[in-house]
User: Fold this.
Amino acid sequence: MCRGNSEAGRTRQRLDVKRTLRSSWIAGAYSSRAPLRSRALIWLLTPLAWLYRAGLAVYLWTDSVGLRKRTHLPVRVISVGNLTLGGTGKTGVVQALASALQKRCATAVLLRGYGAQRTHEALTVSDGQNVLAGWKDSGDEAQLLAQELPGVAVLTGKDRRISGRRAVEDLGVSALVLDDGLQYWQLARDVDVVLVDAQKPFGNGQVMPAGILREPVSGLKRASVLIVTHGRALRESARTDLMRRLRDMAPKAAIHTADYTAVSVDTPAGSSRPADDLRRRRVMAFCGIGSPESFVETLKDAGADVVAQLFLPDHCPISQDDLECAEEWAQAADAEWIMTSAKDFVRMDSLRLPERLRILKAEMLISDFDRLVELACPATSQRQAQL
Assistant:
């Protein structure tokens, strides 16, 4: 990213064009009050959004009248998903929920495998005892969960009916957690947990590609549980108004709130320091995740002075040039540490790491968490699984 040769310069120019278009799209997709250039781009994309919405309506109609059969697996199935593109905190919620469920019954997490450099019908990333695949085969999110969830099986694959059957039949699990599963209609589930980003809940209200919605907001009616994330920075009045809107949209859903909180600062070698060490320390934020803004907010909430930021696309492979560029930026900003996320660190395997690189370990704290766990896997289901 920071090389000075002519080839790198041309590459940088192409990237600049892409970034300009992406920035214009983001501005228009997330707000109806965007600049004229962004609104013009959204206007051009609107006919495609109409086609997408019509196609989705037909698909859902065939499902509702029984023309498409959903697969039912003989275990508890819990989906964690959202209506929108971008990061809402799904990985943190999946990690917290799967960890709690494992204490009640054998649990597996099923993921699509985004970011993997090879596709698989069904790949066992972890059998709950050992990590069996690297991040290039599994994707960064699956690899992170496999490392952070001892005792929980982790599988990836485009068809989660197949990976789900493998988890049940070969690994003997009695609860499945579907990561990003709200729009995976092929598999029946018992609980739909839907995440809503408090700071950008529905964008401009349009479906993609003219907006950030994967489906119309009426899809919230399917939710068993709503978890409002990233709401700590909202004013109380804005938070109250959002909660009122969500209750009107999903009157039967239980509503929880959740936010990331910093736990520790780790070195690449594995040593760990308390998150309090971030207080008043000059740091640079370096990440390629769905919601880099929330990563920066977590650093600031821990007391860090964020003096520089370098963001990559979500799931983007990290190169040696990227790390050298980050080091240059950190030096220029006089940042003591380059802070990256645990998910990004997974993608730095085999690279030469800057000495000032540190990994922020954070956990998702969910309000009334015990009630959520009981809904996901009631004590009666736990007893039945043990029989």
